[in-house]
Amino acid sequence: MIEIEKLSYSYEDGRTALAALNLSVSTGEKIALVGPNGAGKTTLLLHLNGILRGEGIVRVGGEIINERNLSKIRAEVGLAFQSPDDQLFSNSVYEDVAYGLIYQGAPAGMIKDRVAAALEMVGMPGCEGRSPYHLSLGEKKRIALATVLVMQPRVLALDEPTAGLDPRGRRGIINLLAGLEQTLIIATHDLGLAKELCPRMVIMDAGRIIYDGSTMVAFQNPALLEKHGLTDYYIDS
Ligand SMILES: Nc1ncnc2c1ncn2[C@@H]1O[C@H](COP(=O)(O)OP(=O)(O)OP(=O)(O)O)[C@@H](O)[C@H]1O
Ligand SMILES: [Mg+2]
């Protein structure tokens, strides 16, 4: 579904965020992308639908991302940003969630139903008329996720989907994601989510992939977790 070969990216100030990274994701996999602040998780997700374009190759469904296929790629890979303020820009929740479908020219009745279903999925039913600017952080996160779910993309790239959610909301999102058949790539500091939802874990640090394998095996290796900021304790060595 996704193939990344030797992907490198430096921000304008010269900071290297991704260093010759290789990653291959099969259809239907659920992957937790973890690692300390600044590891490069967000930068990597931003490459999956061509928002950032680094050196190297990113293929989605066998196609290398380029200028011409960007809108097709974006229909296949839905990205929920780490900060919901980057995703929400309309005056009403309805307009934000409906935006992509309106852009595609979908029929009005269908848009209304799909928006209602997406809001229901994220635990925010009936809030179409509210202003995204007047929502709490956790509510914004849910609406941002609804804007992605409503498009029914084949791949969901979710950046910190549970950050800022209350425990019940977090549980709702985990249960929702557990029931999806789509390919999921989830950047997260929520290791409980990773353990519960994602059989495969990719640990990044300093722009590189340090570990790519079974989540359970990673959890049996406290030294590995500690080395890459994934524990709240230090191992004396
Ligand atoms: N717009 C930017 N300009 C310059 N450097 C940036 C920019 N965005 C991120 N970086 C740098 O790129 C590196 C990777 O950042 P990135 O946001 O991908 O990390 P992350 O793993 O998502 O971290 P977090 O867990 O805090 O979300 C960091 O060193 C960061 O400081
Ligand atoms: Mg990030």
Please characterize this protein's 3D structure.
The chain has 237 residues and is α/β, with parallel strands linked by helices. It has one domain (2-227): Rossmann fold. It has helices at 41-48, 70-76, 93-104, 108-121, 137-149, 167-178, 191-197, 215-219, 222-227, and strands at residues 2-10, 16-25, 30-34, 55-60, 63-64, 77-80, 155-159, 183-187, 200-205, 208-214. The strands form 2 sheets. Strands 6-7-8-3-9-10 form a 6-stranded mixed sheet, sandwiched between helices. Helix 3 (93-104) crosses helix 4, helix 3 (93-104) packs parallel to helix 5 (137-149) and helix 4 (108-121) crosses helix 5 (137-149). The longest helix has 14 residues, at 108-121. The model has no long low-confidence stretch (mean pLDDT 95). Bound molecules: adenosine-5'-triphosphate and magnesium ion (MG). Magnesium ion (MG) is lined by residues 41-42, 82, 159, 187. Adenosine-5'-triphosphate binds next to helix 1.
